[in-house]
Amino acid sequence: MAENRAPEYTEGTPCWVDAQLPDVEAGKRFYGGLFGWTFQEQPGRRRGTVRALKDGEPVASLARKTDGRLPTVWTVSFATPDAEALCGRVRAAGGQVVSAPLPLGDLGVAALVTDSEGAVFGLWQSAGHPGFGRRHAPGGFAWVQLYTRDTAAANAFYGDLFHDALFGPDADPDFGRAPVSDVFPAEMPPHFLVHFAVEDPAAALEEVTRLGGRVQVPPFETSYGTAAVVTDDQGASFALLRR
């Protein structure tokens, strides 16, 4: 799919991804080697957080974990014009607020929540930073899949929360739901899996291994393309996708 730029994102559209890592410098080496990302310090964020760029356009951020007990993980954030109001709707639908809305300088407002089954995701209320400057092109965000134990409940939760983004006339969701057991062991907790676009999955998997990561799930066919699940050299899982 061609590169897609958007100055703003409809509420419920995946608009940003970030990785919480023990070692940001190691993350820069890994993802710079894998995707050709470059990096810049991120004003308004805590020290040690960097923005990743692909061909000069923002695609992700890497942040140092402040607590070793936290997971090493990629998190997707969904756009919203009002993070406080959306947190209220998340609670009303049976989810929880992990981190209340927090202004990040002049970039916007961030919050962290869970759905009714405990899958964690972020909310992003844009100010100076709307989100991805590049997506769907190699090295950029391509898709996010929620692996859940109850797809009917997930469809109801997100269908109510993000109806226009998922089902509206201009819907371009980049967001699917599937049973955990389709790809992972049944005991795996519900979670979001961030997918990055690649042109050649086999070559990308070789590069993941060369850089110290590992292949978690070999390539498999989905309704949205050929995917493979990998982990980086610090244990954060993500997927590679050719659409």
Quaternary structure state of the chains depicted: single chain
Count of individual beta strands = 14
CATH superfamily: 2,3-Dihydroxybiphenyl 1,2-Dioxygenase, domain 1
| Number of helical stretches of at least 4 residues | 5
Strand order of the largest sheet: 2-3-4-1-5-8-7-6
What structural class is derived from the secondary structure elements?
Answer: alpha/beta
Taken in chain order, the helices and strands follow as EHEEEEHEEEEHHEEHEEE
> What is the name of the CATH class?
Alpha Beta
Mean pLDDT: 93
The share of residues in extended strands comes to 35-45%
Proper CATH architecture: Roll
Global outline:
globular
Kindly give the count of domains. 1
- For the record, give the distance between the C-alpha atoms at the N and C termini, rounded to a whole number: 7 Å
The proportion of residues forming helix, as a percent range, comes to 10-25%
Report the uncertain regions: 1-6
Assign the CATH topology: 2,3-Dihydroxybiphenyl 1,2-Dioxygenase, domain 1
Taking all Cα atoms into account, the compactness measure Rg is 17 Å
- Biggest beta sheet summary: 8 strands, mixed
